[in-house]
Amino acid sequence: MRRLDFAHYLAKKYMRTEMLPHAFCPGCGIGIIQRAVLMAFEELGEEEWNRTVFVSGIGCSGWTPTYFRRDAIHALHGRALPLATGIKLARPDLNVVVFMGDGDSMAIGGNHLIHAARRNIGITSIVVNNMIYSLTGGQLAPTTPMYSYTNTSPYGNIEPNFDLIELMKASGATYLARWTTWHFIQLKNSVKKAIKHKGFSVIEVISQCPTYTGRYILRKPDPRDYMQWMKDNSVLFDVAKKMDKKELEGKIVVGEFLDRDDRPEFSELYWSLIKKKEVEA
Amino acid sequence: MSGKGERKLVIGYDALTDAAIMAGCRFFAGYPITPATEIAEEMARKLPKVGGIFIQMEDEMASLMAAIGASLSGLKAMTATSGPGFSLMQEAIGFAAITETPVVIVDAQRVGPSTGMVTMPAQGDVIQARFGSHGDYSIIAIAPSSVQDIFEHTVMAFNYSELYRTPVILLLDEILVHLREPAVIPDKMEVVERMKPSVPPEEFIPYGGEIQREMPSVGDGYNLLIESVLHDEIGRRIGTDSIKGSRMIKRLWNKIEGNVEKIAKEEFFMMDDADIAIVAYGSPFRSAIKAAKIARSMGIRVGVVKLITLWPFHDSMIRRVSEQVKAFVVPEMNMGKMAREVKRAAGEKRVISVPKLGGSLHTPEDILSAVKEVA
Asked: Would the keyword Oxidoreductase be found if you checked this record's keyword annotation (chain B) (predicted)?
């Protein structure tokens, strides 16, 4: 199948085509992420797709799953994970896939993020990181690089930013990967792995926002230049290990960081407790 | 409504949690806060034994969101909190309202504002219960005033949340949570179950009609689009269409306000020949009854209107009573909040608010002196 035909095939099979065209800016990275997720499901098969529910927060990323023809809950800013926790506990048989932005997950929803990781609840989190608040028009995020300019850091950002992978590793997540939208195939493969993974998984996707990050921070308003920049500045995890701090400055370390199965999954643990208590009662 | 049962000594939180389980509650998410903590503790003990789920979340916002998630997955769900936690939950209450998700929220009121008086009772959250989340929606709030009430009204709260697909607020206060008194705990009560859709997914309209009682769960194959953004009958974002937007907001409003005669509940005591009505709810109702009896012994014809539902407010009922009485006395453990509603509905008739603050309950004499003022 030609590439365009395949895109149409995916859209017709998995998307609410009546809602198209979508609301994302031209050149936005979310379209690539949507396609990577849908391709992952195409490869995983119908059975996985049919037992998947999508949840999202507020922000550009929050709109991601509302175009999928599947149960999708567009929840509150920062509160996608607690809602997903309720769903996973009630229905541990479902794949619960959560889309969040960088502000959504690490600022307003930061507390929920670390607690979901601590519980190791079987939720797949896809964090779309564009280093800025885009839906509100280009404000400082907890991921905005230091000394860059946004509408709420007009004299340069003096706040250090979060490293989501390190944060999640320390909090107890059990599958961790980071890719940029340039790394489409790797991203799709990580989504597949994360959905099959039993515990709490986080995939951070460095995604282009040509409208704000491109104009304000990187001075690359053309999405092609932006993606070229992501490609040129990405360093594979294994390679990065051999590099020193100075060499890594300004680089995006990508790869699969963690895949462990030595921590019990929360909903499974809870349901085995219920079964025990029910028998006792 | 209730079947036969055994009369025994029961404490408020025990009655509440037993009733919730009888009503079919199988999910509780909460965060410890005085004086609602015992409700969470009881649910943590009781739920797993009946195949239900308890989870202590990281805060109250998360607690209500988790309960909503469980409800969307087909379980009847509840959370319980007090003032500060109730304030944190407001955004999620709006989310439950716009997504029309049944969920029961218990607010065991304590003295505010802010941390206030942690262990002392109040009724300061009654307006917040109605108008706490931003935007236009309506909601049902119920205020029990005895342990017997707590049991029956908890079941009522779950039933209403399913019937009207709405969050329901159960307004207790510190006294009621920790009150131990005799109550008849019924073996069985009428329980409203969640209705599954009767048509296939392609014909199903998730937010159609006045109230769409049929509610598929996530994972049922109905490809639901559950939006916090104002949406149309199918769940799609309305965007900037103000005509559609206004229609959907009115729908949220009318499904509660338009059914006020079916939803509102109250009880009348000594009202047949009364020319003064004490309107009371929650713990002050207990003092109100005593005050009315003393007044009667003094020859003053006083009756008591006990509000069971606070919201939607029963305007027509107060209007009817106002044709009979010359004045209303409204004792509340706040600065006079429901008294404003009574005033609004009572027309020209005098309405005396009797506030009691700082965590103490009205004595019958407090109410009596207001009664004497208008007698």
From this structure: yes
